[in-house]
Amino acid sequence: MKELIGVVPLGEVPTLAVEVIAANITAYYKLLADVLPMRPLPESTFDKARLKYNAGLLINELDALDFDGYSKIVGVISRDMFIPIFNYVYGQAVQGGSLALISLFRLNRNADGSTPSTSLVYERAAKLALHELGHLFNLFHCNETRCIMHFSGVIEDLNRIPFYLCRDCARRLPR
Amino acid sequence: MIILKGESMEPKLRLMIVDDELIVRESLLYWFRKYGHEIDTAASGAEALEKLEQKPFQLLFVDIKMPGMDGLELLERVKKEYPETLVVIITAHGSIESAARAMRAGASDYLLKPFKPEQLSLVMEKILSQQKITSDYHYVKGCLDQITRFENIIGQSPPMEKLYALILEVAQSDASILITGETGTGKELVAKAIHAKSPRAQLPFVAINCGALPDALMESELFGHRKGAFTGAEQSRKGFLEVVSGGTLFLDEIGDISAKMQVDLLRVLDDKTMFSVGSKTPVEVDFRLISATRKDLEKCIQEGEFREDFFYRINVIRVHLPSLRERKSDIPLLVDHFMAKYSHETTKHVDRIKSDALSLLTSYDWPGNVRELKNVVERAVVLSKSRTLAVEDFSFLGPAHAALSAPRTLKELQESHIQKVLEEQDWQITRSAEILGINRVSLHKFIKRSNLKKPA
Question: Where is the domain boundary, B145, B165, B194?
């Protein structure tokens, strides 16, 4: 089956953001990526104690939805999310699986508290989606700082990494 | 050990997450999978220890609060039994006191749940750099291990240091060497080492076990034969004395050769020429002779079993090998070596030995010397169900000790002693019969009557 990637907004997400993500997936992975209709953000995944969405539960909810014809799905939310051991996560993916998720929430702020330009926010969103999609292609975190699969712990890391895969990771990408 | 996967040479770890909460185990499992690490999980301290018994882990993430054995107790056990395994403590109920206790007990780091992704990332960077230091240490240790070896001979005890110095000294001369020592002390290894350090090192090393060959066959093997020299000699064949040309000839169990063969060899050593069986044309030979024996040849001479002139010809330089009893400090080194060898051969993870088991091995007298130790460790590795050898794995050792505690009949004692001697001698009947002071036929009869069996 030819890889077809679906980018799905969960809840209210800027249309331009998901379009930029889809365009970058096509540009860097050379795969067709469609923007899919918005799906409601499942409130059952909201943790009232931590005031964030549980990324693990969100992935489970995504799994229950029907995305016929799409081999991989990247969900996009505007709200903050976490996994139980971490305060927050920018993105989450099932290693080697078909479902990934990214949050735009923490991309709207620079490390010094200032507000980034919209284009920088979209650039970060696209990088995050490309990184999580890499995990769906079973790529691991990479030590090479000039690689999209390099782990970004803080927002400056995300600014620094490029959009593309390093040579080693590109070679490991399934054909 | 750092596992290297794929082509990028990124260090990958074998790690275990120990937490009673499934959700935490799963979160960390998914997270670490993104790095390609090999991950296992355990829901309790006891389960973690069971898994550590089976295979080594480089890193453990351990929750403090768990039912049964808590994280700090597990940390202490791990640091005591597996000091190379690094432990990161994770807890949702942090206190300065518990953090201090964890760090004092040897934790590599302490994380408060929930933590930020970059905190875990920093911890992992630190761990990987610690692992790099450990890996470098093992590399250097490997180099040192090479130093503790001398041409595959293992040992760094004073008697062995003396032996190495002697080997280096005698290797340079061309004089005949007689290696003496108890069975299983490694006489052939020493002969090979002398050859390897000698100017003849690039030329052949030919070893013949004189005890294993009947006289006629030995003659043909050493001197070769012409076609038609005897019934069955359909082709001419070069003997080892010719094949070894320029190299070293090692005659093991020289005390077992016949009087005729002693004369024949003496002639070759004196004239540096020999005749193939059935040939009248002399062939020039050039070799360095190293002989070995476990027998007391001086005594054999007195008893008329060995020629004195031949003895003086082969005994120009004497190298005596210490028994394992005389170099017990080498036992841990030898055990490590055999554990690694047989773990590798059997693809089992057996890389550790409990101190009481090592004490047992050190207190034993090893009448069969290094060969017996090698067989004992091989058997223990093959039968071991965990990665750590314990006293129970050597329960088959020392029937003599058992004999002291349990009253036994004379017949039982006789059987167990004969079985022990046979095992020490790898079931070589001639050698075992000699040690027991009976002839081969009697030994065969005894084995059949008592139904003694060679272990599979």
Answer: B145
